[in-house]
Amino acid sequence: MLYAIHNESMKVSQFHPCFADSAMGRFGRLHLPVSESCNIRCRFCNRAFNSIENRPGVTGGILDASEAVATVRRALELCREITVIGIAGPGDALASDSAIKALRAVHGEFPRLIKCVSTNGLMLPERADELAEAGVSALTVTINAVAPDIAERVVSYIDFDGRRMTGREMGETLISRQLDGLSKAARTGVAIKVNAVLIPGINDRHVEDIAIAASRCGAERFNIIPLIPQHEFSHIEPPDCETLQRVRSAAERHIEVFRHCLHCRADACGVPGLSDFSGKLYGNEMETFSHG
User: Fold this and answer.
1) What is the pTM for the complete model shown?
2) Is 251 within 8 Å of 223 (Cβ atoms)?
């Protein structure tokens, strides 16, 4: 059986389709959309509740954390190729307790499946150890700037320490906590990938700096995601192939670059690019989406 492999690092490097090129088209993932709220307002983000858009931040509804184990069990019946149980939205996985609660329960029932979390990293310094204790062995942190002036152009505000931060203070706080969280997570032994959204005219000349910082903090892989023009950045053209290749090549001098991201939904289920069981799995049973 596939799940008989116990070395967590080896499992992630071989059987996680978002971490290993060789796993694409062979192994599947299930996203549990339990993260109901977010603590950052990115200017490119447009979270939505529908069944037709295939992009991050979109889900058919919010799944209650108490339903996670039953959902995983049904998903494995639909798709035996699933090796990864992930939480990637629609809000941030660490902005509430829902993700960690769900992952603890799933890990107790399915210890040999890879547990994965995607986060903006704002609360990662406090929760890195909790993630490891919940069985998480793969972590993705989205970092779109490591310079405060650029962060201000990408993020409208953050909600942190009981108040809403904007401007320079926001940029400095976010970057400091993201990099501190990366370092703390790396010390737990979790495999780390950093995502960066490539935004022409804003951070396209800065992504290499993000790659350098990510590598220094312990990230092993780097994923450069072309901007999807929407929300405040609906007027910005996505990067062309030449720009994307240039930025990837620059980042690759410092860290392994993952090149096969498919912009998955927060309720994705199946083998990326080959099968989609989310409709059969979730149907109309989830709560109405909240923009909290």
Assistant:
1) 0.87
2) no
